[in-house]
């Protein structure tokens, strides 16, 4: 039984056609991105899935791994107006949101005029977001959640669609301000950008150090992306997948009566309902990217770490023992999957 119904048979057939057409277009977009981003297919897919789900993504990786290039490429391929903000300790909220300036007209009259900040973009790259002060980081909170900003007492809508792709260096923490939990939770997914393997790195240096450089072309535009987000939300999801999402998210909360021992022992606090919402949307988007008509339980298991790892924390004792949060999540996924199979 499907949790999300498709209405009449005609509606179901129309949705099927939309999914198949969108899948073909997404295949073209992935191929276009692949001309610039060599390897890193999981990173590309997770970022695309986040955008198809209407959310924001946090890219974690060392310098030089292509995070900035990925965002720039996505901006072109998805046909979005993009801006980049380099976060620094002296960055102020007005540098992001914009501000009002007092102007004098030719007749001598004075009036305030609002000058939009770089946040007024469809795709915003927040580079090294943890280098800005908490006051400046918080300026993104309302924008990421409400898709609007308030300046000088007036609320202004941001362009649609609006996505934040933030980058963060996981190693160099001197002079940085850790993101608060409230802001981390606004990111639909956390994406770890790892080193490429030897064969991929060889392909990268051969492709990027020659005289000719590949250029990408738009495949989507803003309207097409908004329509695709609507298709994702209408995709059918089976009851078994919904139950798996609930089992997994609730199992990661140490206060739950049926939480596994590994969670009770090592986890300080677990994910909230927003994690379940993220898993639901991303599972649909991943199925769409893979050319499938509905998500399965394997999608939930595969997306568990990117969705949950920034929405839960280890206890002090677990960190002292060298416990890795991703290992805890993997163990929980294994136990929930085993229960699911046994049932």
UniProtKB/TrEMBL annotation:
Pfam family for this entry, one: AAA_3
Domain AAA+ ATPase stretches: 53-197
InterPro entries listed in its UniProt record: AAA+_ATPase (IPR003593), ATPase_AAA-3 (IPR011703), CbbQ/NirQ/NorQ/GpvN (IPR050764), ChlI/MoxR_AAA_lid (IPR041628), P-loop_NTPase (IPR027417)
Record protein name field: ATPase AAA
Source lineage: Bacteria, Pseudomonadati, Pseudomonadota, Alphaproteobacteria, Rhodobacterales
């Amino acid at each position: 039984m499907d949790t999300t119904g498709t209405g009449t048979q005609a509606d179901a057939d129309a949705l099927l056609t939309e999914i198949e057409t969108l899948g073909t277009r997404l295949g073209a977009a992935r191929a276009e991105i692949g001309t610039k981003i060599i390897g890193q297919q999981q990173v590309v897919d997770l970022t695309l899935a986040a955008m198809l789900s209407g959310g924001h993504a946090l890219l974690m990786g060392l310098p030089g791994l292509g995070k900035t290039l990925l965002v720039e490429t996505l901006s072109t391929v998805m046909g979005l107006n993009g801006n980049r903000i380099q976060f620094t300790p002296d960055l102020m909220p007005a540098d992001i949101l914009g501000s009002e300036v007092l102007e004098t007209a030719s007749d001598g009259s004075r009036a305030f005029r609002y000058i939009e900040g770089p946040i007024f973009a469809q795709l915003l790259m927040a580079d090294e977001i943890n280098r800005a002060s908490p006051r400046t980081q918080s300026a993104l909170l309302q924008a990421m959640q409400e898709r609007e900003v308030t300046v000088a007492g007036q609320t202004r809508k941001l362009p649609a669609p609006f996505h934040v792709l933030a980058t963060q260096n996981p190693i160099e923490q001197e002079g940085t301000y850790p993101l608060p939990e409230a802001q981390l939770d606004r990111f639909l997914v956390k994406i770890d950008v790892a080193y490429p393997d030897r064969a991929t790195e060889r392909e990268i240096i051969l492709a990027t150090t020659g005289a000719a450089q590949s250029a990408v072309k738009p495949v989507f535009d803003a309207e097409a992306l908004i329509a695709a987000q609507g298709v994702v939300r209408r995709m059918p999801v089976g009851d078994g997948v919904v139950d798996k999402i609930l089992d997994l998210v609730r199992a990661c909360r140490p206060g739950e009566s049926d939480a596994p021992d590994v969670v009770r022992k090592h986890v300080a606090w677990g994910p909230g309902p927003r994690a379940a919402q993220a898993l639901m949307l991303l599972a649909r988007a991943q199925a769409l990217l893979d050319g499938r008509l509905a998500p399965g339980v394997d999608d939930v298991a595969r997306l568990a770490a990117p969705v949950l790892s920034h929405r839960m924390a280890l206890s002090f004792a677990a960190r002292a023992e060298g416990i890795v949060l991703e290992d805890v999540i993997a163990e929980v996924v294994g136990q929930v999957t085993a229960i699911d199979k046994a049932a």
